[in-house]
Amino acid sequence: MGVAEEVADAVTDGTAGTGGTSGSGAEDAREGGTPGREYRMEELARAAGITVRTVRFYRERGLIPPPRREGRIAWYDDHHLARLRTIAALLERGHTLQGIAELAEAFEKGRDVAELLGIDGPSEETPVRLTPEELADRFAGEVTPENLAAAMEFGYLGTDGDDIVHISRRLLDASATLVRKGVPLVAVMEAGQRIREHADALAELLLSFTLEHAAEHPELTVEELRPLAKSVVEAELSLALDRRLHQA
DNA sequence: ATTCTTACA
DNA sequence: TGTAAGGA
């Protein structure tokens, strides 16, 4: 708690913990002031509002990636700083160090998924970029390493730099709403998977339909049909729901 | 002399 | 986590 508060202070007014105004002439690392810059151990610690010892402690627990080593000195960058801020924020939200460590591990594993998300063609679904803290807020108590790994496995979540990216605003909102109402996130994701399978089948149907008629009707592209397909599927879904409800 | 690690409390 | 001691 003390740590997190100091970080909060540092972020807010730019002054970190114990009055470190000793005239060594070292520059303060300000919020987003110098991206791409590298930090020495002490600089990093000061920028994050924690002690050098704590940084080392986190590193021993695998909470932050190893620094770049240049002979004797360890160089840290913005990623490390961002990670430290994230750790502090998650700690403040009641996460345990152990839990954060596992989260970090799952986070590292999904690093390469970012490309999968980035190179998306035209889609109406807008990706949502959010920090680990924001994610923890949206799914209070459900942000476990297991769930995080599963979400990445399913392709809902990826990472971009130090941010997390959800592939779809609407899916994110829907799942967050369900979780807020008490549905376990795992259940939501499993249901989502099954729905996706059917959606894939529908998409395949649309594609083959397009191909079948492409010869005679060149203006019949998938993108032309997208809004039509959407309204057809939505209408059929409504009707299907009606049938189930009325007969039950 | 400085920066970082190891070891102990 | 603080701190003292020691390697490079």
From TrEMBL:
Keywords: DNA-binding. Residues 1-37 are annotated as: Disordered. GO terms for molecular function: DNA binding; DNA-binding transcription factor activity. SMART domains: HTH_MERR (SM00422). Residues 38-106 form the HTH merR-type domain. Residues 27-37 have a biased composition (Basic and acidic residues). SUPFAM superfamilies: Putative DNA-binding domain. The keyword Nucleotide-binding does not apply. PROSITE patterns: HTH_MERR_2. This is MerR family transcriptional regulator.
